[in-house]
Design brief:
Strand content of chain B: 5-15%
Function (chain A): Part of a membrane-bound complex that couples electron transfer with translocation of ions across the membrane.
Strand order of the largest sheet of chain B: 1-4
Number of strands of chain A: 17
CATH superfamily of one domain in chain A: NADH-ubiquinone oxidoreductase 51kDa subunit
Largest sheet of chain B: 2 strands, antiparallel
Shape of chain B: elongated
Oligomer: heterodimer
Radius of gyration of chain B: 25 Å
Main location (chain A): membrane
CATH class of one domain in chain B: Mainly Alpha
Helix content of chain B: 25-40%
Family (chain A): Belongs to the 4Fe4S bacterial-type ferredoxin family. RnfC subfamily.
CATH topology of one domain in chain A: Rossmann fold
Protein name (chain A): Ion-translocating oxidoreductase complex subunit C
Radius of gyration of chain A: 32 Å
Number of strands of chain B: 4
Largest sheet of chain A: 6 strands, mixed
Distance between the termini of chain B: 68 Å
Strand content of chain A: 15-25%
CATH superfamily of one domain in chain B: Electron transport complex subunit B, putative Fe-S cluster
CATH architecture of one domain in chain A: 3-Layer(aba) Sandwich
Structural class of chain B: mainly alpha
Subcellular location (chain A): Cell inner membrane
Structural class of chain A: alpha/beta
CATH architecture of one domain in chain B: Orthogonal Bundle
């Protein structure tokens, strides 16, 4: 298959060998699970259980609310200990409403949702409903509700479902292991999703550094028509949605548009596996594969983890972390986020937990820009990081927006390559967040202004009506007075007029 | 050639003179700094500074007859921006920083007197005589007028908690290590 080049990008040390040959092992169910109600983009889920309730594994704990949201299910059987605010697995460390579930040790499944035996005979709406019911979100880390994304087929003419198995982040091997060990589930899930999307073709793209995954997927794909497996060059950020689309199809996604606008929808391989389980087995999303790695971890592993497991328990399962641990990160080292504490939970979007040593981090004091232009050469989005950063440093966010800071995918290639160690991507993350916040504020002000104007207009109308009513009443009163006065006047006037007439 | 240059020159001079005179005669006397100051203010027209709106506060600021620390929604950032533009010293410590807030009616204390509804400029409070009133949080812009008029002190101005969705990274320090 012909591939197309993508712009820029870097070749970091991948260090995937730490875990790439470690088969997925299941984590024994922890005593207590901590399930945040917000594990996805959009509105938080709405609880359907109360403290003290007994639940079975797979039972609904919280249902989706609003158009963009995802349901949450019990990862094991047990008792709801409490529903309370706890630190979110998010760099902000803000509190988030969390369901605490005490395991009863039986790990007993609830009655599963009825399996859809022939998903290809089912309507796309039925598949979509099942995916929503199972609480599936994009498991590459973006955590966008998958059912919403499967609905794109209704508004766009789609040609290709592109399954993302690039896994371009260093260290992470969870997708690699899923593709190797569950190739049949991945391919089946992908075909079901393509059916729901109305996309005639499935392409599974895997970076060339995972030959075993490519082989096992190819063996599965050979059994079905319309599924193609393609190896793509090892180049970070190949796994970014737009870049993978460009590399495989040669179609460039316009700024602020979706890949669906060029006929392609991208889903992660782990999402495909979750869809397979939801549709064929009737099982909701209650666990995920997580890579625990990094130089400070005693025994790096790939682990199937029940959602809600605390990071500290996961690290203990891997022999704990050594004293050299400098940073604990959720996700990959390029785009992952620092964790506020080790007591936060593994959520649907946690692809990896990394404990990195000093030598593995890129912590240097930044020095002035030397105008080498490396960031411009390596930016995979064709932006000019040096210029955007200097605008942002001087609080000229509007100018930074004008030259495309909102089109930055935060891949971190510029920060990685910068010889002066300027935290470029940090500037862009700040600017994107700040611009969005200012936008919200502006909308709020506009809304307030509209409300105030409507209020004033209403008062004015009321005053006007009052004036008119008063005028009317006055006129009526005058008329009545005139009418009352008229007979007298007439009586008085009659002789006069008679006289006048006489005269 | 001479004719061309001459005619164009005459046209230029005439039109220039017309425009110049018009600019002088029809000029609207606006203090340019007023507009600049207004752009620095949040523009929510809340009236918490004591002026009718942001434009009026900006006008007063331009004349220099009012303190620069009156804008509650703008916070310290606005004070600093105003101080920088006006070249005056900002005593920002005197200003108490309040984040985004929303009015909240304590149901046990509300007597349904309608006074807050009369005060509210953005129709953010609903209720009927002798019935419980409530605040539509989305429409409230935290002007505190209801808070001040409530006879039973049933209204409090509550801070709006920060959400993960609205959170963003802070600006990196000049010599940040990451």
């Amino acid at each position: 298959m012909k591939l197309f080049p993508i712009l820029g990008g870097i070749h970091p040390e991948y260090r995937k060998e730490l875990t790439s040959e470690k088969a997925i092992v299941a984590l024994p169910v922890p005593k207590t699970l901590y399930l945040p109600l917000q594990q996805h983009m959009g509105a938080p889920a709405n609880t359907t259980v109360d403290a003290g309730d007994l639940v079975k594994k797979g039972q609904l704990l919280a249902k989706a609310q609003g158009a963009i949201s995802a349901a949450l299910h019990a990862p094991t059987s047990g008792r709801i200990a409490a529903i309370t605010e706890m630190t979110a697995p998010h760099p902000s460390g803000l509190p988030v409403l969390t369901i605490m579930l005490d395991s009863d040790g039986k790990d007993e499944w609830a009655e599963p949702m009825p399996a859809i035996d022939d998903p290809f005979a089912a309507s796309p709406a039925e598949i979509k409903a099942r995916v929503a019911e199972a609480g599936i979100v994009g498991m590459g880390g973006a955590t966008f509700p998958s059912a919403v994304k499967l609905g794109l087929g209704g508004q766009h003419k789609l040609e290709i479902l592109l399954l993302n198995g690039a896994e371009c982040e260093p260290y992470l091997t969870c997708d690699d292991r899923v593709m190797r060990e569950f190739a049949a589930q991945v391919v089946d899930g992908a075909r079901i999703m393509a059916h729901a999307l109305g996309a005639p073709k499935v392409i599974i793209a895997v970076e060339d550094n995972k030959p075993q995954a490519v082989d096992s997927l190819k063996a599965e794909a050979a059994k079905t028509p319309n599924v193609e497996v393609v190896g793509v060059p090892v180049q970070y950020p190949m796994g970014a949605e737009r870049h993978l689309t460009q590399a495989v199809t040669g179609r460039e996604t316009p700024a602020r548009k979706l890949t669906a606008d060029v006929g392609v929808v991208v889903h992660n391989v782990a999402t495909a596996r979750a869809v397979h389980q939801a549709v064929r087995l009737g099982r909701p999303l209650v666990s995920r594969v997580v890579t625990v790695s990094g130089g400070a971890v005693a025994e790096p592993k790939n682990i199937e983890v029940p959602l809600g497991t605390r990071v500290s328990e996961l690290l203990d399962f891997c022999g704990g972390i050594s004293k050299e641990a400098r940073r604990i990160i959720s996700g990959g080292p390029m785009m992952g986020q620092p964790l506020p504490s080790l007591d936060v939970a593994v959520v649907k979007g946690t692809s990896g937990i990394l404990a990195l040593t000093q030598g593995e981090t890129n912590e240097h004091a930044s020095s002035p820009c030397i105008r080498c232009g490396s960031c411009v050469t390596y930016c995979p989005c064709g932006l000019v990081p040096v210029e955007m950063a200097s605008y942002i440093r001087n609080d000229k966010l509007d100018l930074a927006a004008k030259i495309g800071v909102q089109d930055c995918v935060s891949c971190g290639s510029c920060s990685y390559i910068c010889p002066s160690h300027i935290p470029l991507v940090h500037y862009f993350n700040y600017a994107k967040g700040k611009i969005a916040a200012l936008d919200r504020e502006r909308r709020k002000n506009e809304q307030t202004k509209a409300l105030v104007e409507a209020h004033n207009a209403r008062l004015e109308r009321q005053a006007q009506a009052k004036r008119e009513a008063a005028a009317k009443a006055k006129a009526a009163k005058e008329a009545a007075e005139a009418a009352a006065a008229a007979p007298q006047a007439n009586q008085q006037a009659q002789p006069n007029s008679a006289g006048g007439a006489n005269a | 050639m001479l004719l061309d240059v001459g005619s164009l020159a005459v046209m230029g001079v005439t039109l220039g003179a017309v425009l110049g005179t018009a600019a002088k005669l029809l000029a609207v006397p606006v203090n340019p700094i007023e507009e600049e100051l207004q752009n620095l203010l949040p523009g929510s027209q809340c009236g918490q500074c004591g002026f009718v709106g942001c434009a009026q506060y900006a006008a007063a600021l331009a004349k220099g007859d009012t303190p620069i620390t009156l804008c509650a929604p703008g916070g310290k950032a606005t004070i600093e921006a105003l101080a920088k533009r006006l070249g005056v010293h900002a005593d920002a410590d005197a200003h108490e920083e309040v984040g985004p807030r929303v009015a909240f009616i304590n149901e046990d204390l509300c007597i349904g007197c309608l006074r807050c509804i009369g005060e509210c400029g953005s129709d953010a409070i609903v209720g009927a005589p002798k019935q419980l009133h409530t605040v539509i949080a989305d429409a409230c812009h935290a002007c505190s007028k209801c808070f001040k008029i409530c006879p039973t002190e049933a209204i409090e101005m509550r801070p709006i908690p920060q959400t993960i969705a609205a959170w963003h990274w802070q600006k990196p320090g000049e010599h940040s290590a990451h």
